[in-house]
Design brief:
five-stranded mixed beta sheet; alpha+beta
Length: 126
């Protein structure tokens, strides 16, 4: 499998469609420039901050992939995001999920599960 840096003009429409299959809506300006894509299979993003903390979010795989294909593609994306976050000097990489399978994948990559009963909140600013 080939891993590519995210290029909005090449990848956004595919990612948008994949996220829509999960009832998630995304606009081009809602995704950061730092992301990785396995074309036709999976994508994920590094949300950078001005602190030592970064976020790994919007991991998504194309619908209809076999479990093996999905796992291989998403694992490549997660590893690339972790490597890029380290290269950029971040000390903590956080992610959120409601899916047990994502927690298991994250643990496989060295993440620890933090149970805190978090709720996701959002405020549209513009």
């Amino acid at each position: 499998m080939t891993l590519e840096p995210y290029v909005p003009e090449l990848h956004f429409e595919h990612i948008k469609a994949w996220l829509q299959s999960w009832d998630e809506i995304v606009t081009p300006d809602g995704l950061p420039q730092t992301g990785f894509v396995v074309p036709g299979k999976a994508a994920g993003f590094l949300y950078r901050t001005d602190s030592s903390l970064a976020l790994i979010e919007n991991l998504v795989a194309a619908p209809g992939l076999s479990k093996e294909e999905r796992n291989e593609a998403v694992d490549l994306v997660v590893a690339a995001i972790c490597k890029e976050a380290t290269r950029l000097g971040f000390k903590i990489l956080l992610g959120t999920t409601q899916l047990d399978a994502v927690v298991k994948r994250a643990e496989k990559h060295g993440f620890i599960y933090v149970d805190g009963g978090f709720h996701v909140i959002a405020l549209r600013l513009a």
